[in-house]
Amino acid sequence: MDTLSRDQKEEMAITFAVLLLQQEQIKITPDKLKKVLDAADVSVEPYWFKLFTNYAEENDISALLSGAPTVVSGPVGQQETQQETEVKEDEKPEVQDDEPPKKSSSAFSSDGGGIGLGLFD
């Protein structure tokens, strides 16, 4: 613990408080987090309480702990779960070893198309 910065120690303390409240199935609020840390005689900067409360309100902590699928961030409208991503990767066609890779028609190829620099062949 001596190698951790003050912020890291505070983050770890508030994380343990969140986990404790979650385990006891108590709604996570700034006041309850403060009570847990006060009981442990740990002080943290006040912003941690609201930060972790907001996170707990927006995310299912029990699902996070159980390893349930999480949302993979991406451009708006293109979010999908991690399981869906894995399924899509499994659906990709396999390239056979004796088949040469297909050349892409990049604007930067040297096959006569594009500017012909051949930098990205």
Automatic annotation (TrEMBL):
It comes from the Eukaryota. One of its GO terms (cellular component) is ribosome. The keyword Ribonucleoprotein applies. The keyword Ion transport does not apply. InterPro entries: P1/P2_N_sf. Pfam families: Ribosomal_60s (PF00428). Residues 85-102 have a biased composition (Basic and acidic residues). Residues 68-121 are annotated as: Disordered. Residues 111-121 have a biased composition (Gly residues). Keywords: Ribonucleoprotein, Ribosomal protein. Belongs to the eukaryotic ribosomal protein P1/P2 family. This is 60S ACIDIC ribosomal protein P1.
